[in-house]
Design brief:
about 280 residues; mainly alpha; about 5% strand
């Protein structure tokens, strides 16, 4: 790596650490969401279906997906990332979050490929303007249809269908995606807010909102272990966006962002343990 590359990486790490108090840090006291403050679709609210659904296990597909997700496992230091085998703990964490935040119209797909229903949800989600739904929204569902996360992974929330797609058996990741759903529930102009995400640098804000909410929720409802895990996984995940935004998508920038996030996450995790030990004394 060039001297200039090293200096940029050092700068990125410094920026990550300096942003820690404001970005990727739990907001407390935690503000639970209320349905009366959301802008939701009556059509989605009237659908009578299980809120959380699981894809049927397909060993060959799930194994391919696990292998495809190896880079993510390495980057985030967690073999559960994109493992396509969602455990009961992760499902329960998402279900409890949605219940506590009164997010009743959000759909959750745990390692499930169901494009037919996603297209129908796109049509029914009248809380997003038709102009956005049938342009960016249609493109997003088309992408999910022809590049199925069931194989290629990619935990995400689709605001155009109001659906959370989870392929990692990590509660903190599921809570982060749920945080996106809560963020969008408050937005009146959801399509415009989603489109803004495409502007370089804008994802830093969207991802910070979801990360802060997930961390605040865990700090309020979780035990020490879940709190530490959340910081250790969500900080480096956020670091990928910082690296891409500050260094124009350069490979070393992405890597520096992840490393900086791991350092910040481990530091915060250690701080929580130290604080807990002092309280016990």
């Amino acid at each position: 790596m060039s001297e200039n590359g090293i200096s940029r990486s050092g700068l990125l790490l410094a920026v990550l650490l300096s942003l820690t108090p404001a970005v990727g840090c739990a907001t407390t006291p935690y503000r639970f969401g209320s349905a009366q403050h959301y802008h939701t679709s009556p059509q989605l609210a009237s659908r009578d279906e299980p809120q959380i659904e699981r894809g049927r296990p397909v060993p060959v597909l799930d194994t391919i997906g696990w292998i495809w997700g190896i880079p993510g496992k390495i980057l985030l230091f967690d073999r559960r990332v994109e493992n396509h085998r969602i455990d009961a703990e992760t499902e329960a964490a998402i279900a409890e979050y949605l219940h506590n935040n009164e997010l009743s119209t959000v759909k959750v797909r745990l390692n499930q490929y169901h494009p037919g229903d996603d297209w129908q949800r796109l049509v029914d989600n009248k809380s997003v303007g038709a102009g956005w739904r049938y342009t960016l929204g249609a493109l997003s569902v088309l992408g999910e249809t022809i590049v199925p996360g069931r194989v290629f992974g990619g935990d995400h929330y689709n605001p155009f269908t109001n659906t959370i797609h989870v392929y990692s058996s990590v509660p903190a990741i599921g809570l982060h995606e749920s945080g996106h759903a809560k963020d969008f529930a408050y937005r009146k102009w959801k399509g415009t807010y989603a489109a803004v995400y495409l502007i370089p640098g804008a994802p830093l804000y969207h991802e910070a909102v979801a990360t802060n909410d997930a961390l605040g929720y865990v700090m309020t409802t979780g035990d020490l272990s879940s709190q530490q895990e959340a910081y250790e996984i969500l900080y480096p995940a956020y670091g990928t966006y910082v690296g891409n935004s500050l260094l124009g998508g350069a490979p070393f920038g992405y890597l520096a962002g992840v490393i900086g996030g791991h350092i910040a996450g481990q530091w915060k995790s250690h701080s929580l343990e130290t604080e807990a030990a002092s309280v016990r004394k």
